[in-house]
Amino acid sequence: MPTVPAQVPEQPIRIPIPSELRAEPLVLRPWSRDHAAALHGALLDNVEHLRPWMAWAADEPRQIEERVALIDGWVEAMESGRELQCSLWLGERLAGSAGLMQRRGPRALVIGYWVDRRLTGRKVATTAAYLLTELAAATEGVERVQIWHDRANLTSRRVPEHLGYRLVRELRSERPGQRCPGEDGVDCVWEMSTIDWVAGRDLRPVPQLGLPRS
Questions:
Q1: Section 58-87 average pLDDT
Q2: Overall number of domains in the chain
Q3: Are 12 and 82 in contact (CB under 8 A)?
Q4: Is 3 within the bounds of a domain?
Q5: pLDDT computed for residue 1 by the predictor
Q6: 134 within 8 A of 40, measured Cβ to Cβ
Q7: Secondary structure (3-state) at 202
Q8: Which domain holds residue 117?
């Protein structure tokens, strides 16, 4: 009688850590301890902007030592290949944060982001998501990329819409007891297959930032 081959567990995706990703003038750099002061200042300045949508903002303000510990956690996750967490820079100005994470099953990565309150609507998050989708599409084992946001967050919705992601479902939030003040408790799930992204690359230019005049 032939034997049934043993099931081999699916290997987790190992997300590469580039030194930086660029779409001038925006630069994405992996977070490091050198960025702790900039992160601290940006979060203190943006806490009311982020509180309606980010559950972790409910615990703000925090001390700079906690920012260092947070970054240390990101670095450990990046070194293990589980995540990529990047600071967003416009010259010397910290513009926000964006990341690639393994949270939604095998062969899928999720993009998350937040942007400084003075730069919303300027395609900073869209450009960061474009660069991270490019990286995900070039990463072995990745078949799809997702962006999740609450249905009430129309600013966040514009990011996957602009990039051609497809809205695949809406579902009740998995964290009903942690709803943020601006949320209505329904998650919108947008998805892009890496095959479709690569096939449509020539028709999908890098977003152009609409930056205010200095």
A1: 95
A2: 1
A3: yes
A4: no
A5: 42
A6: no
A7: helix
A8: 21-203
Query: Measured between alpha carbons, how far is residue 205 from residues 47, 85, 100 in Å?
Result: 32, 24, 21
Answer whether residue 124 is part of any domain.
Answer: yes
Report the residue count for the chain. 214
CATH of the domain at 42: 3.40.630.30
As a whole number of angstroms, the distance between CA 52 and CA 133 comes to: 26
Does residue 108 sit within a domain? yes
| Strand ranges across the sheet with 26-30 | 21-23, 26-30, 83-90, 93-101, 108-115, 144-150, 186-193, 166-172
pTM for the model stands at 0.92
For residue 191 the two structure tokens come to: 């998805």
What confidence tier does 212 reach under pLDDT thresholds 50, 70, 90?
low
Does residue 172 fall inside a structural domain? yes
Place of tokens 């600013």: 155
User: What is the C-alpha to C-alpha distance for residues 83 and 127, in angstroms, rounded to an integer?
Assistant: 19
Q: Is the peptide bond prior to 106 cis by the omega test (within 30 degrees of 0)?
A: no
Residue 76 has pLDDT above 90, yes or no: yes
pLDDT tens-place string over residues 95-129: 999 999 998 878 999 999 999 999 999 999 999 99
